[in-house]
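Lab notebook, page 48
Experiment: co-folding of the full assembly
Goal: obtain a model of how the components sit together before planning crosslinking
Operator: M.T.
Materials (sequences as entered):
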Amino acid sequence: MALDAAEVRRIAALAQLDVDPDAVEPLRLQLGAMLDLVARLADLPPTDGASVETDADSGGIADPRSDDPREVEDAAGPDPAVEPGTGLFRVPRVLATPDVGSADE
Amino acid sequence: MSDPTDWGACRLGAELLDGTCTVASVASAFIDRIHSLDPALGAFCRLNSRIDEELVQAERRLADGDRSGLVGVPVAIKDNIATRGIVTDAGSRILAGFVPRRDATAVARLRAAGMVVIGKTNLDEFGMGSSTETSTWGPTRNPWDLSRVAGGSSGGSAVAVAARLAPVALGSDTGGSIRQPAAFCGVFGLKPTYGRISRSGLLAYASSLDQIGPLARTTRDLAALLRVMAGPDRADATAATIAPADYVAACERGVTGMRVGIPREYLHPGLDREIAQGVQRAAGVLEAGGARIEEVSLPLTEYAVPAYYVLATAEASSNLARYDGIRFGRREPAQELQSLYRRTRTAGFGAEVRRRILLGTFVLSAGYHDEYYGRAQHVRERLRSELRRVFANGITALLTPTTPTPAFRLGEHNDDPVAMYLADIFTVTANLAGLPSVAVPAGLNAAGLPLSVQLVAPAFAETTLLQASAVLERAFPSLDPPMNQPAPGPTAGGSPAPAGPR
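Observation: model returned without errors.
Model output:
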């Protein structure tokens, strides 16, 4: 499948990635080649109504547990700091200036 | 005097129990060897700077009479598997300096068994690659020919084992990333059944395909590590509740009565002649051991790679969305939030990762989701059914090539990523179907490069793989790269070369 430059930029925006103008064309060609590879899936004939077997036996994957809340071990970063009186989480400042600008860099 | 770096994990464990060596002397031998050889290889991203604490604990356990068999044995860990207190960056700038607060479950279990983490091994960034060329730390080179790739994405782990920088290592396998580098480097590599080993703490690439597994120089070592790591885990809802088997005992059971299928689609006329001959020799060994060799057909084989690259990249685009510069990892300065996301991700991810995220985003996007992702899911289910039918017809295991070629040269596929993707043809099906699979060394080709065969078994039949692998191991000569000369002393001055461990 051939992509055009606008499509490459659209996909990049969806993926939260910047693409240099000089990189659009090479990327367009590479993605096109990748899509040509996966387009082979369309060559597979349909199953003509034959049922696709599903795994009645889940293969031993953990039995679904009941949807009950329980204590879990903290797995990620430090305990978040909480703003006194509000219960809101404090997060580190991530933007360059206190006032959020309206224009992209 | 015997060199402990010549020994595998089980042998080392036994020698430590017998007191013929100490935990400290074993670790020192491997670390000296890493400092000596790894500057040329690039297998390690970093060594465990707190290894002394682990060595003390191991010595104490041995002194207290712990005879569990792996206490004090070093293990190398692929750097997309979390290790408490040791930087884990998945070969990516976006996670530079990230230090996990806890071990991955697989690592925790190895440590609980007394194993000592010697260091973190290099990989293709986030596990995306088949050559270990895309890491931010640079490429890892094949110890059989330094101008060739180690394979990927677990190239560092494969090289660490092949070059005797560690007796065993952990890798991860999403589309062949344990088996292919094992094949290229002449070692054993096992991808267990999906769910056999907990994925908790594995930095996700494609969550329905990823599995952690061991690399080793013997089948028995694969079995020993699998036995330690396998089992349910509350931190991973996809971890299987089926109890682990006696994998070590399976290594002695032989292959009498097995029906081994060779898919005709895998031995097509274009396959490397010596690789095809390796498969035939392996079939002969298994037949001499009492197995029956049969031809089977997997007509959907040609659709496996396209299906894989739709599904894996789709899942990757979702999994890697978390790397946005907010909670962890790299953060680029920006005046506005969306700009912060884009600048951080663009600067933090390498080219191959960005390509795969873009492809995955496209196949999930409105207007294309059904055509690509929906269709790939359907093909995946048909592939699973096809394999299920083969095994239901009495086939015990499949025997196939692991890779279509031996290790290729560094940079050979840089300009053609699709050519790299097509090389996964023999490995991706096991991931798509969630089945266990092992790469087994099968001699050398005329150019002195390792050959390998792959065995695939039904779900949770790792014992079948280990039985057959052990039989092949006894028949094929043990592989040892030419660079495995007696280890020289520590480097002069005590400081590693620039490309050495960090």
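Interpretation: Confidence is low (pLDDT under 50) at residues 491-502 of chain B.
Next step: discuss with group before ordering constructs.
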